[in-house]
Amino acid sequence: MFTPENEMKSMSKNNTNFSTDSNPDLQKQILIKGEEILKRMEANSKSSLFSKDYWYGSIMEMTMKNEKFKTNMFRFVDVLPSLNSGSDVHKHIKEYFSEGGEDIPSFFKMGVGLGSLAPGLMAGAIKKNVTSMAKMFITGENPQEALTVLKKARKSKLAFTVDILGEATLSEKEALDYQRRYLELIDWLAKDAETWEDIPQIDHDHEGRIPKVNVSVKMTAVFSQINDRAWDQTKSILKERLRPILKSAMEKNVFLNLDMEQYAVKHLTLEVFKELLMEPAFIGYRHFGCVIQAYLKDSYEDVQDMIQFAKKRGTPLTIRLVKGAYWDYETVDAAQKSWDVPVYTIKAESDWNYERCAILLLDHHQHIRAALASHNVRSLAAALIHAEKLSLPKNSFEIQMLYGMAEPIKKSLVEMGFRVREYAPVGELIPGMAYLVRRLLENTSNESWLRGKFADGKTTEQLLQNPSLTVSQVQLQQASVSAKKPLRFPQNYVNEPLIDFAVEAPRAELKKYLQQFKLHQTVQPVLNGQKMTSSDVFKRVNPSQKAEVVSEVQMATLEHAEKAVQNAHQAFASWKKVPATMRAEYLVKLAELMRRKRFELIATQVYEVGKPWSEADGDVAEAIDFCTYYAEHMKQLANPTKVGNAPGEVSEYIYKPRGVTAVIAPWNFPLAILTGQVVSALVTGNTVVMKPAEQSSLIAAGLMQMLTEIGIPNGVVQFLPGYGEIVGEHIVQHPLTTTIAFTGSKAVGLHILKAAAVVKEGQNHVKRCIIEMGGKNAVVIDSDADLDEAVDGVLYSAFGFSGQKCSAASRCIVLEEVYEKFADRLVEAAKSIQVSAAMDPVGYTGPVVDEEAYLRIQKTITESKAKHQLLFEAPVSTQGYFVSPTIFGNVDPKSDLAQKEIFGPVLALIKAKDMDEAITILNSTEYALTGGLFSRSPENIKKFKIEAEVGNLYVNRGITGAMVDRHPFGGYKMSGIGSKTGGPDYLKQFMEPVAVTENTLRRGFAPTENESQNDSK
Ligand SMILES: Cc1cc2nc3c(=O)[nH]c(=O)nc-3n(C[C@H](O)[C@H](O)[C@H](O)COP(=O)(O)OP(=O)(O)OC[C@H]3O[C@@H](n4cnc5c(N)ncnc54)[C@H](O)[C@@H]3O)c2cc1C
Q: Exposure check for the chain: N or C terminus, fewer CB within 10 A?
């Protein structure tokens, strides 16, 4: 089974052995080299980043002392460039810092009104200070500005590599703009460099002249639709975009480096780099480079691989060895996805790995030029000693550091005769802030070597300690801490990881399953374990390809429905007696079987309901989550809860099953919702009549098959593929049905509630309905929102799976200050996404589910065109039920388009003058399902949390993709009734709570409390 976890395990196999290089001679030499650098630094050290004489220094000091201030400060820095007026800046200062009391720097005290200066003036002064802080790390807002700085640095024998800072690339327009900017930068610098004086220490290596101009490129900047599933297509476009840049660099004798970003694009970056460099046009050019991040567990293997590659290529290339700039992100991201963390988690592990990667690179200096990028003197000293051991000329490798950091170290190494290169970002303030926050985080981290040296006053011995020794000590400490941690559900619940399609094996496996998928599969009702036949056949076509019949469903008849309920009622008598722990075990087995059949289950969804790969995988993972979560939860609920504390009696609160449960599930989460409803009923001791949506009968048949395979006794689940109006209606009305779990439209949901309320002859219970209906979900965009994130979040929430999720965004309420900018970027982003057959991984989204949905949505679009401003619509294929993502602008919040559920890829943009109006608009529909806010104002976030009427409220993220346990899901008002799926109250709805009270007093004698408790077990 290919899971990201297994994949990572096998990749990091060789990385767990921290052999301590305790060769005392070698360690001594490293120490001496380190001391030499440190000594020189003392002489060169006039002021450091951490010097308290400066505004920046005192901010750094405060952030290192006070975690809360650190978070608020970095968040404030992040939002600052988007604030346009003094009053806006002042409002945010107050919101971020007023809780800090006396314990904040004096200028912030004034900013929040505690000082003597007028708040408006103070706001201006703070903005100026933060801007100048950014300028410490950014060489200029444009290449012209930067060049002055770079030329000055060259005079101090510091080489450079220029990088363009920018907003996240969300559209192809933005991607092409980046490509143009890189080309212009190369052109412009190369022209100017023609007149630069030759400085041998930085312009020559051991073989002769090297380019004076060195440019660093970020791959993700030049293509907005990077998509792991469509690996080859993605690579091909990336290469197409990068080729002119490489070509221009080569023609103008410029060094070109491909930077490394998040782990998610690591495999892609290395493949693209290698494939480009093997092309005939580029194979002979020696001035290309890429980056290896030593904090990655698989980086040592990557260095080995690059060495082999360089040998094969025959022309040397450069590897910049860094530790890695995204440590915090990688650890959080992996934990959120339940993936193995790709980075080392002990700082000394990264340091140790850096040293061994550096050694490996230097050992192969004939094929690879090493660029040792670090500010850590121990890391550099270890590499320098190895270079000496190999007798390498000083200029056969280089040392790189970031602009604005570690000046004394740079100077010292320049004095020692090394080639030192600065990484010099160029760009405007807004994108610059993200870069500034990364630098601030890095510099103030407890683990930072620079902080240890310049702020914490660590000793030379501590600063130059052998990292492999530290690793073993820290590992021991961590092991003892984790051994003491209690493991308690649901705190320790781990969601099923999604497939990482950046790994080749699962990609190939899914392709194979899709290619082998069999059309014309037969689906039949199953009653008491027996397949039934029916002459009423429903032909389900592939929504991506109308000509293909995916399944032929023999639709259950009224007689089948009647038998199904009777059978389930009979089976209840024995199933309810099966102990809860055993019922839970069935769910665990079901989860395991789903894991084994994962690719088959995904492929079926792709064909039957047109779910794109990742969406289908998400659905299967959620189905697994429902099994594992409810199994664990039932084990807890099965323990009677003691209530009351009166002596002489014992009272317990227990749960009992209710009887036959009718499950009427939708097609949009065809396995997840169905499984969730079925297993909830089963694990709580009920029997089930399972009626899937007509459109997803084959997927449901798969669930029935799996339930049989794991040995659920015949009769406990009855499978009724059929029409809602016929068999659905019958099981709802049936007097033996006790509980109805339904997800679908408002009209049907309300009808079921009404029908269930009527007590039929022979019925001796009140039916309980758990009903989930529609939504008209909105996302609000505040004027200070991070538009990179907002555009991305809204786009996916509105158009992922063609807007056919109950949680999908169909309204976007934008504050007027940013309306135009947001709308422009959103429309450009929408233009860049592709609608394609769900089988084709290239698509951002696929078709809608069937002809009825297609006609209904198209009708809404056509009618809306006459009434509203159409901002975006694109032509789509007619081979399937494809509907273009469609955006309307300036929509009246009271119009049908803004009030009625569409369940398709149609988004209405609505303008609001302020947050109050935005929330009023958000609350103005009859639904209350999901809602979102993109804002960086703590006050507005607080207000939204209190006032927004939605069941699931998301801040600064998309509004779809609820996960079991993390985001229990469900709405209120006309969105539904009942408690949230995947949450702590859900199972209780399938049971009756019973209070059992026993009088334990016999002739004046009552057992002690402990004895009574033991009795009850
Ligand atoms: C010229 C240059 C170019 C760069 N280019 C890139 C690039 O393309 N891509 C990129 O990602 N980075 C890049 N970096 C950034 C670089 O990764 C960081 O500046 C670097 O990580 C800081 O490391 P250090 O050796 O200077 O400092 P140190 O203080 O020794 O190391 C800090 C680093 O240790 C790692 N770390 C921190 N905590 C832990 C922990 N608990 N467990 C394990 N490891 C931990 C992190 O990587 C952190 O940044 C570049 C740096 C330079 C100097």
A: C
